[in-house]
Structure formats: C-alpha cells, structure tokens
Specification:
heterodimer; A: alpha/beta; Rossmann fold; six-stranded mixed sheet; four-stranded antiparallel sheet; 10 helices; globular; B: mainly alpha; 13 helices; 1% strand
C-alpha cells in the first residue's frame, strides 16, 4: 500500500502542492488528472525524490520513503518515468533497457577487477531479462538502434521498459500517452493492465481521458495543488466541478 | 635520430596517459575538467618536493600519486551540486591556484626558479617505463569502458537525473572516476619529472590543459584509440616545431605560437563539423532475438 500524507511544496509564495493525501493499493491504477500547472508532475517528482518537499510523508507498506533522495527512493522499489522521456540517447535501445537493472556487480571497480566471473554471470542474466522485456514491449526489432533515434511513442515505451528492469513495486508514469499514436497507446493500455494484474501500484498522470477511463480504478483530480475530487472514473466524469476546472464548460 | 625517436615516444606515451585520463573523465563520464594539468602537476611536484627536501624519489612519487586523488575529491566537492558546465570553471580555477601556489611559495619546490630532480640517465629505460605506464592505464580504461560501469558512466554523461532515478548515486560515480583518473595523471607527472629532470611552474599552465583537450577532442573523446591518435598528432606537431622553424626560417617563438593558434582552429573546426572526433564511439550490438 502506498500512502501519501499531507504533502506540501512551495516555491517562495507559490504553493505547488497543498497538503495532498492519497492511498493506492497493490494491483491498482490510480489516475491523476488536472489542468496544466495543477501540480501533477510536482507530485510525482516528490514521491520519486527528484523534488524536495516542504512537509508531509510518503510510506510504502508502512516504511517511510526518504524524500529528496532519488537514488534511495529507487531502492525502495519506486520508479518514475518522465513526460519527456529521460533516456541515454547515445546508447542503444538494448543498452538503455539494461541500465534499468539493479544492482549490477559490474558497476563496482572492485568486482570488475577481482570478481570477473560474477560480473559476467550477472551481465548474462541482465541480457536475458532485457530480451524478454524488449519482446514484451514489442521493440526487439529496434534493439540496436540509438535510443535518440526512436519516435516519441517508442521512447515512452522504452522508458517504461527501463523501469520494469528494476522490478518496481510502484510505477509513477507521467503522461505516457501524450504525443503517442493510437496503436502504441493501445499497447501501453494492455501493458498497464498486465502490470496491475502482477500486483503493482501504478500512479498515472495523463490528459488522455480515454486512457484514464480505460485503465484507472480510481481517479484523483488536482487543481492549484489541491485535491478537488476523487472517485471512480465515471463519477469523476459526471462531477460538475471537475468538468468546469478541467474538461471545460459543458456545451 | 634514434635518440629523437626514443624521446618522442617517451613524451607521447606520457601525454597519452593524460589523454586517457581525460577520456575517462570527459569522454565517458561527461566531466568537463579544464584543470587536467593539475593532477599532472601534483605528480611532478610530489617528485620536486622530495628532491628539494632530500627525500628519496619513491617518496616523491608516493606523495604525488596519493595527493592527486585526494585533491581531486576536494576540488569536485563544491561542484557536486552544480551542473556540469560549472565543473569547467571549478577545475580551471583549481589548476591555476595550484600553479600560483607553487610559484609563490618557494619553500615547497623552489618557486619560480624550479627544482632539479633526478633525471633518467638511460633514455631507453625512460621510454620503457613510460610505455609500461601507458599500457597499464590503457588496460584499466579499456576494462572500465567495456564494462557495466562504463555503461553507467555513459548514462551519467547523457543524463545525471536518469542515473539517479534508476537508483544510482551520480556523485559517488563521479568521485570514483575523478580519483582513478587523477592517479593516472599524477603518475604521468612523476614520470615526466624524471624524464625532464627539472620542474618549474611554467610547465603547468592552462596551456597544457588546452593541449590535452585538443588531442582528446580531435581524436574522439569517447574512444581510447581516438585519444591516442589525437595525442600522437598533437605531440608530433609539438616536438617537430623546431624543425619547422629551421626549415621555414621563421623564429621558433613565432612557429610555437602559430602552432597554438592552429590547435585553437582545429578545436573550433572539430566542434563544428565532427564533434565525435576522428574516431567516434562504436555502437555495441546485442542479439535481441535469442531466446
């Protein structure tokens, strides 16, 4: 269970998040919607440790997640993808997938020179897993292309694959469908459903309402940094306040 | 002629070690070290300090090679929370601070007048030592570059935040690279001191950093063969300056300055038209279809 309690973030006098609290259970997808600037990305950044926090706490299965330290948050099994995918552009797709695996013996100087056999074995395992993740994403044919050469939609799939290599319990996805063609959106929706069935917790920030309504179990609506509504997707669609703040005035 | 060849090979080997050290820092990890001359100078000054204070040569080597990585960690400390552009300024400043300290504190190693150190009497021995050092650094850099560590360093070069969200500590890796590559450069400095037999601050100006960078950028910062090729080209033009001066009849000062001007031009042209250098990084291919 992911429990977020009273998160607040401010930049000077501007409050980006106003004591946001929410819960997400294993095997569920929680949608996070709201107009631009409502604090969705900030919220994900705080949980991922990329953004320092003014107050509040995040717990995963009761354990306090250290905030403001991305490298330690990842060790708790929390992975974040970015709206503009962060990739190593001058490495190949295959290498990008491989760097998601953790820990890697071959990244320590000592093991590299003193335990070459361990390093080799781990590397072979990582390669096997990278192959299966690529197949799952249907990106095998792109394995040896530079990540920077992929289309926007493929880059989003790749960054999701990179996360999967780290066996995250929590996935924080920032607009995976934005600028992606319908075929790849469909593939992502299927993938998200599989990941939910595996018992992972997924927080999905997304403007594409078709995707949100298609996969989310619950939806939280943010406006000006505060939660203004929460409920199942259909109820949210019927909520008048949400319609006004986000989806526009009803015709 | 043989003597000249032996000397040239020795010098090229020493500068190749500096270039490989910069390859690890810049070519792999993306650390813009504009003070690459600093660890080199620390190695040389460890030797000079020992000579000036009647300590044995091995003690001087020990001081240089131990002090350099420690100094490196100190120098990059303020840069830990800065973007990589600022590394350039911090390291550039650190290199100058060290040189000016050596210049103005004669107690350490003779100040402006410099210090004489033991000079290898046998040029062949110097060459063999230089080539051995080069081989060791080359094997080390190759092992690191082709390993999972090298892969993660390249991720750092591309995007530090990505490395952090994948659970890595970017600053820990940057410290490791700095320490290792500064040890190499310091060892090159020790050897250089014993090859020339004389150490003074004027040998360690920003200009030397600039020469190493020219070689690395020209050859291709991300490959070992690239930085070696660049070093050979740059150092050959450097040692042949006096021949060019004789042949053209121009004063050798002018030729030396023209050479530096040419390096600058080469840097600009390479950045504009071939940023990956003469030898670009090779793509590592994997078989993705195997079951």
């Amino acid at each position: 269970m992911l429990t977020v309690c009273d998160l607040s973030v401010s930049y000077g006098r501007f409050q980006a998040l106003r004591s946001v609290s929410l819960q997400a259970a294993p095997g569920s997808i929680l949608g996070l919607i709201g107009p631009n600037g409502s604090g969705k990305s900030t919220f994900l950044n705080v949980i991922a440790g990329v953004q320092a926090v003014a107050s509040g706490e995040v717990r995963l299965d009761g354990t306090l997640v250290p905030l403001g330290l991305p490298e330690r948050v990842a060790a708790h099994g929390i992975g974040r993808s970015f709206q503009t995918p962060r990739l190593a552009h001058r490495l190949t797709v295959f290498q990008n997938i491989m760097i998601g695996a953790r820990p890697q013996a071959g990244e320590r100087l000592r093991s590299l020179f003193l335990q070459p056999a361990t390093v080799r074995r781990r590397e072979a395992d990582i390669q096997d897993e990278a192959r299966s993740v690529l197949r799952r994403l249907d990106l095998s044919h792109k394995a040896n292309d530079y990540a920077g050469m992929l289309s926007g939609g493929q880059q989003k799939l790749l960054s999701l694959g990179m996360l999967l290599m780290g066996h995250p319990r929590v996935l924080l996805l920032d607009e995976p469908a934005a600028g992606v063609n319908p075929v790849l959106i469909e593939r992502q929706i299927n993938l998200l459903k599989e990941l939910r069935a595996e018992g992972r917790i997924i927080l999905l920030v997304e403007h594409n309402m078709e995707m949100v309504c298609g996969v989310c179990d619950r939806v939280v609506v943010l406006d000006s940094g505060a939660v203004i509504a929460e409920g199942d997707p259909d109820a949210i669609r019927r909520d008048e306040r949400v319609m006004r703040s986000y989806l526009g005035e009803p015709a | 002629m043989i003597d000249f060849a032996v000397f040239s090979i020795t010098i090229i080997a020493v500068w190749s070690v500096l270039a490989i050290s910069l390859h690890l820092q810049f070519g792999l990890t993306g650390l813009v070290n504009f003070g690459q001359v600093l660890p080199f100078a620390v190695g040389a000054y460890g030797t000079a300090f020992a000579a000036a204070h009647g300590l044995p040569a091995w003690a001087g080597a020990g001081i240089g090679v131990t002090l350099a990585p420690l100094l490196g960690l100190l120098v990059i400390l303020p840069a830990s929370r800065l973007a990589q552009d600022y590394w350039a300024l911090v390291t550039l400043g650190a290199g100058e601070i060290f040189r000016l300290t050596m210049l103005n504190v004669p107690v350490i190693a003779g100040g402006d007048e410099g210090t004489s150190v033991y000079r290898f009497q046998n040029a062949d021995l110097a060459m063999v030592l230089a080539l051995t050092l080069l081989l060791v650094t080359l094997l080390f850099a190759r092992r690191v570059g082709a390993s999972p560590l090298g892969r993660m360093l390249r991720v750092l070069r591309e995007d530090e935040v990505l490395a952090a969200t994948l659970g890595r500590n970017p600053f820990r890796l940057q410290r490791m690279v700095t320490a290792a590559s500064w040890v190499m450069a310091a060892a090159a400095g020790v050897l250089y001191a014993h090859v020339t037999g004389y150490i003074s601050p004027s040998s360690f100006t920003v200009l030397e950093t600039f020469v190493i960078w020219t070689a690395v950028v020209l050859g291709g910062p991300s490959t070992i063969t690239g930085v070696l090729l660049g070093t050979v080209i740059v150092q050959l033009t450097s040692v042949s300056t006096r021949f060019v001066a004789q042949w053209s009849g121009l004063p050798s000062d002018l030729v030396a300055n023209l050479r530096l001007g040419a390096y600058g031009l080469v840097l600009i042209l390479v950045f504009l038209y071939r940023p990956q250098g003469l030898i670009p990084e090779r793509k590592l291919r994997y078989d993705a279809d195997r079951l």
